[in-house]
Design a protein that fits this description.
This protein has helices at about 10-40, 45-70, 125-130, and strands at about 5, 75, 90-95, 100-110, 120, 140-145, 145-155. The strands form two sheets. A five-stranded mixed sheet has the order 5-4-3-7-6. It folds into two domains: about 5-75, Helix Hairpins; about 80-155, Chitinase A, domain 3, CATH 3.10.50.30. By secondary structure, the protein is of the alpha/beta class. The protein starts with a strand and ends with a strand.
Length: about 160
């Protein structure tokens, strides 16, 4: 079984989330459970049941993050000497050849992908089409809403 790749920055974000859950959220939830217990009958205590549900979710997320981080292969993209070639971790400036709009994506591991932050998974169709290309090249890929044509404006590693 291969280890899923993750950027150093992505690893740090996940570790920060895990530390927040452990050091801030977990103690707050434990205090909420203790306070709800003090109100008496637990069978009809909605605060207690809500706090226990939140505790279950939080502990599950902590376990998930620990498992992901222990199995992931952290790649420091600043050490890659790929030049203007697109590889894992690249920040790619693209221009849609049909509409002329510009967009910037970073190719990251599946564990840290978040389209809202312009982090696309290395397994996504656009990332698979980008891998191996160089700045200045044009490419096309099939998106859910049809074939898209892009030009690679710049490739950098930060």
């Amino acid at each position: 079984m291969s280890r899923p790749p993750i950027t150093k920055a992505g690893s740090e974000r996940l570790r920060a989330e895990m530390e927040k859950l452990k050091s801030i959220d977990r103690p707050r939830i434990i205090a909420a459970i203790a306070e709800a217990r003090a109100h008496g009958d637990l069978k009809e205590n909605a605060e207690y049941h809500a706090a226990r549900e939140l505790q279950s979710f939080t502990e599950g997320r902590i376990a998930q993050l620990e498992g992901l981080l222990s199995n992931a292969e952290v790649i420091d993209v600043t050490r890659l000497n790929a030049g203007k070639k697109v590889v894992f971790g690249a920040i790619v400036d693209l221009e849609d050849e049909d509409s002329g709009t510009a967009v910037t994506y970073q190719i990251v591991g599946d564990l840290e992908a978040d389209i809202k932050q312009r982090l696309i998974a290395v397994t996504s169709p656009i990332a698979r089409a980008l891998i191996g290309k160089n700045a200045g090249e044009s490419f096309e890929f099939t998106a859910p809403n049809g074939v898209k044509h892009y030009e690679i404006i710049d490739v950098r590693y930060e």
